[in-house]
Specification:
This protein has about 150 residues and is α+β, with helices and mostly antiparallel strands. About 20% of the residues lie in helices and about 40% in strands. Strand 2 and strand 3 form a beta hairpin. The chain is globular, with a radius of gyration of 16 Å. The mean pLDDT is about 85.
Length: about 150
């Protein structure tokens, strides 16, 4: 992402934004949402001997949690800078924005620092993570054609 490139406007349809909250351990967080606030635990991904990622939903509200260890492993595997994992401390929130076209978004991200290069995930997304000039970490992702319902 280069600041000397002409600015383009993203033409992709932004479908939803979901906070991704980072914590040391996910398991202690879940009863607050599931027992107390009646959220449904809709997906988990293990990491070593615990939960590394969890997605919760209730109505139109969606939340994602990821453990520090899972983030570090994920970023290491994708070639992202080690400093990114260090910035994602307890309670830090990033945004995960689903779009219909990642190419359109990438063309518009001239002022964003690339943190995680474009990759295709096991959960069916074509995604990239950037840091906006204000410091916010944002993941943009489009469903891969074989994952579209």
């Amino acid at each position: 992402m280069h600041p000397d490139q002409p600015k383009a406007k993203a033409k992709a349809n932004m479908k939803k934004a979901t906070p991704l909250i980072t914590v040391e351990a996910i398991e202690p967080c879940l009863p607050f949402w599931t027992d107390g606030l009646d959220f449904e635990l809709v997906a988990t991904v293990p990491h070593e001997d615990s939960i590394g990622f969890a997605m919760l939903q209730r109505g139109g509200v969606e939340l994602m949690y990821q453990s520090h260890a899972s983030i570090a492993a994920d970023l290491s595997a994708s070639g992202a800078p080690a400093t990114l994992a260090a910035t994602m401390t307890d309670g830090t929130a990033a945004l995960f924005i689903e779009v219909d076209s990642l190419d359109d978004v990438l063309a518009a991200l001239t002022e964003a620092e690339l943190l995680v290069p474009r990759r295709q995930t096991f959960y069916g997304m074509d995604e990239v993570f950037v840091r906006a000039p204000c410091g916010t970490v944002i993941g943009f992702a489009a469903k891969l054609p074989e994952a579209v319902e």
